[in-house]
Design goal:
Two copies of one chain form a homodimer. Chain A is an all-alpha fold and 224 residues long. Chain A is built from eleven helices and no strands. Chain A is elongated, with a radius of gyration of 20 Å. Chains A and B meet through helix 6, helix 9, helix 10 and helix 11 of A and helix 6, helix 9, helix 10 and helix 11 of B. The structure holds a DNA duplex (30 and 30 nucleotides). Chains A, B: InterPro entries: Homeodomain-like_sf, HTH-type_TetR-like_transc_reg, HTH_TetR, MT1864/Rv1816-like_C, Tet_transcr_reg_TetR-rel_C_sf. Chains A, B: Keywords: DNA-binding, Transcription, Transcription regulation. Chains A, B: It comes from Asanoa hainanensis.
Chain lengths: 224, 224
DNA sequence: CCTCTGTCAAGAGCAGTGCTCTCTTATGAG
DNA sequence: CTCATAAGAGAGCACTGCTCTTGACAGAGG
């Protein structure tokens, strides 16, 4: 009963906070949120015990939104089209980031100063990369992604441990290449969102497309 | 005379602000800086007309410090060792970032909300990548880096324009690979600094070394 | 039907912030 | 030695996160 009203109130606060995020960034103001909501500032603390808790909620929402976007994009591609599934993931990440730059900054930018991410975030944070893991896992199972890159033992162990979680049957050579690709993907998106590409790149879109296609080839995912 | 005292004061303010940066991040407090300096808060405005100007100064300092670190590391490697020069650059970036995580966050993390980087920053910001450009330029001049990667026309133009600035004689195929490497480098460092690798990677150092060596091979820079 | 309890909003208040303004001091150039 | 100028001090404005107390209201138990 009243729990439903409470949930609606929480959603409303988060929606306004998200809007605030666009103009104020991570240091949004509880009082301004309260003002927009027609509520006195202290009332917000009935729903979020502190500003950090509001931020945590926004961060969790952002991770799940990104995960949903990636999952939807990848799920819409025919299972056998591994390159297509890979590209769908890449574009989903970039498109979501471009559409929600401040939420992207919240989760992939500088950590909020006093803020420490609670442990609940790690599960939801790894969803996107797990989906990529599924793609290379499927590709490896039908015999693709056979690389004999030689890794130093300590690196091999490190990569193997990651592989056990997201793609157990992928050889570590291909896994290491996939990791590099993941890093390049987020390097590109972060540079683009954070303005590091200004005055240097005019059309990031086609450049991104090309870089990711090159990475698909490098990993060994066939492009139709 | 008077100007020297003023310069010393500015340096002192920046030094204390940098220290503050470590604990408070980008939303450091002018009043706290003033307190640490034994000065009343309004006196700071004699030296920096606003908090953003202080941040700009810190950002410029950070870019030049990173540029210096990269230049020193790259300059210490024998000219003919292209792979070594490349790896020196990569490690210089990562080492500097690990040693100065908050300054790294200032320049490569989320942009400060109300803050807009003045045009002076772009020149100093491109120093590091320009040094990498010099390495592949030298390598290309002796006949390395011959790739026939085919790029879509609009991407080719984009990459060529970047190449004209940092490495005019490098074919765009290799240039595009270098760009991807640069993105991966900063993707790695950002993930490591911003905690995205926590609970996933135990020894980032060796993993970084391996990834960058793989990229050197991918670009075509010979490793001794 | 009444009372009692738990939830919510409101308001005041504390300590802190960036920034502006005015006043006072002292220092170095002429 | 004079005096314009630079620099610090202090008060004040509007804002922030957060706490505490007070008052209103709804629903459950007797």
């Amino acid at each position: 009963m009243r729990a439903r009203l409470r949930a609606e109130m929480i959603d409303e606060i988060k929606a306004i906070a998200r809007r605030q995020l666009a103009t104020e960034g991570a240091n949004l103001s509880l009082r301004a949120v309260a003002r927009d909501l027609g509520i006195v500032s202290s009332a917000i603390y009935r729903y979020f015990p502190s500003r950090d808790d509001l931020l945590t909620a926004l961060i969790l929402d952002a991770y799940t939104a990104l995960g949903d976007a990636v999952a939807a994009a990848e799920g819409a591609v025919e299972r056998g089209d591994f390159g297509g599934r890979f590209l769908a993931i890449c574009h989903a990440v970039r498109d979501w980031a471009l559409a929600n730059p401040h939420e992207y900054a919240l989760i992939y930018g500088s950590p909020v100063p006093g803020y420490a991410a609670p442990a609940d975030t790690v599960a939801v944070a790894t969803r996107a990369v797990t989906i990529l893991g599924g793609v290379i896992e499927d590709a490896a199972r039908i015999g693709l992604l056979r690389y004999d890159d030689v890794l130093p033992p300590e690196v091999a162990g490190e990569v193997a441990r990651i592989g056990e979680i997201i793609a157990p049957s992928v050889p570590i050579g291909a896994l290491s290449r996939t990791l590099g690709t993941w890093l390049q993907l987020f390097g590109f998106v972060s540079f683009e969102i954070f303005g590091q590409l200004n005055n240097a790149v005019e059309l990031p879109g086609p450049l991104f497309e090309h870089q990711m296609r090159a990475q698909a080839r490098y990993i060994g995912l066939p492009l139709l």
